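== Item description ==
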Amino acid sequence: MIATDKDGFLLHLADWSPEVASELAAGEQIILSDAHWEVLYALRDFYAEFDLSPAMRPLTRYLKDKLGADKSTSIYLMTLFPGSPAKLAAKIAGLPRPENCL
């Protein structure tokens, strides 16, 4: 059992692993594909570089540089992480909730 807050975000970043990510995703009815993993690892790289979880706009800018324009649009991210992509992807990536996400 991994410790999470009331919204399902990990309490301890060090608890994250691909297996934990798969469990968190399953709790959101998401089966992780290669496209999901690409975004999740890029998001973890962003966190390692800037020490924060990005809101949607910084996330899309970062993904454009790392993955290309076709994989950085909000529509693309919504297909992978429905609802609030920045928030949901951060949760599955084991990162804190982005500050600007409700």
